[in-house]
């Protein structure tokens, strides 16, 4: 492996760019590996799972780039700086950097001084360094920003290449107006909203973008104020981007009549994660997304989901159902969940990741088996069985036995992960029978029921782990099971 040339190593390490543990291990192999990994790690040094409160070395590296005059000035203010110069470093680290993360810079500058004013001064100098040294700025997370960094002399040349912006909508509109003059090619815009108001600055920034593909808006649950309707300008700005937006993720606390108008025009969506509770059936039929591949919706909107799926183009690879709200959804749960299963196997033959919720009726189990036989590409399946009548131990065991028998008979060969929620139970004998008949290899099963951590279950699981049938069977927190996107 040490003899691989640098080009092959670079391609390999780029595939590991989200795996910080492996990348940091590669640094220790030899000089060639180290020289190849460093530019990848420093492209976005803030994104790795590191405790930045204790990462003094990161502070040393950035501070070492400060000029002697700046160091002298900051030292007179009582800020503690390292004596190392960037000229003594093994690499010109900042020349590899393509990102700025305001929150993490705030954390590491606190190492220099506990005083707010001193930290402000140090942050200003750090931002000045980044704007001067990095060749181009691709990623900016400016949540909690206090500095007008786009007014630095070199900012125009750095910000014009900005690809992804993460921000907090509560910051002053002047920040967005400042970016409007510099950034017109943002492709990913992600907004955390903690303070409801009129968002003219954000709307203006959206309007000037020439190739925005991904838009995400997340309201903070604590920011709800009855009677407020803050989204109109944002939604109207998105309406002007129907030719470019492919990915839309909306977590909105307020009902806005403009949303229906805008969603009906975004026909090029490949990802849609949103709520549809304000819309009637006729409005939902106007949401036609022939390129849709990823679709996420709340459990209690199964009928809405079925209409969207029916009008899709048969390309959906992932359907996720948010876990909350299920217990409030009783009246038409039987019929809506039955229709949902049918629409999935009728219109999503290429589905790979799927959340299902249904009541344990013979009809539902029959439709589940049809789905498994038709959807041959299924890799990960979440099954949430919910009974709205009295729950008995006998019925829980019956539900678990029936599901496992169906999976044995009809599960596609690609299925490698199954998650179970709510009203089921597997006896030791039924689970062993299921594993003994399983046709595939490397199966992972996740549940939030602690019973499967008992000694007899562990012995059974280890038996099938040893022969390769099982990769993992374990109990994990409810929300980790419910979220298929969460890698356990």
UniProtKB/TrEMBL annotation:
InterPro entries: LRR_dom_sf (IPR032675). It comes from the Eukaryota. This is F-box domain-containing protein.
